[in-house]
Amino acid sequence: MKLLAFIFVLLASPSFAAISNPQKAAQDLCEMEWQITDKAMATDANISYIVDGEVKKFKKSGYSLSDFKIDETDFVKVSIEGAEGFRKMQEGMTTPYSEARSFFRQRMMPICIKNVLGNIYKDSQDIN
Predict the structure, then answer these.
(1) Is this prediction's pTM over 0.90?
(2) Contact yes or no for 31/102 (Cβ under 8 A)
């Protein structure tokens, strides 16, 4: 009985439950990525600090990047490089970021979610 209770608690824990709802998991991962991009473009805060803060928030919500088969060190490195690239791109924009913000979000989120869901479903197919 104790073993059953332990298994139930383990399966109900956020890190295992994260992929039990692929749509929400994909949305949450992409929201973290969007927050990194948005904060990098909307503020002059240190990008490493932004990425670290968003990864910590993501983990506090019960996820781990490994749930998505993402290496955290690589994710941090790529996120920092990407955010730096967005900042450089912003310098050449004629439209202020505050006006372009919704445009970027509307383009980024559906593509990100589609890609994450594709990877989740592919990984679940590989297991079976």
Answers:
(1) no
(2) no
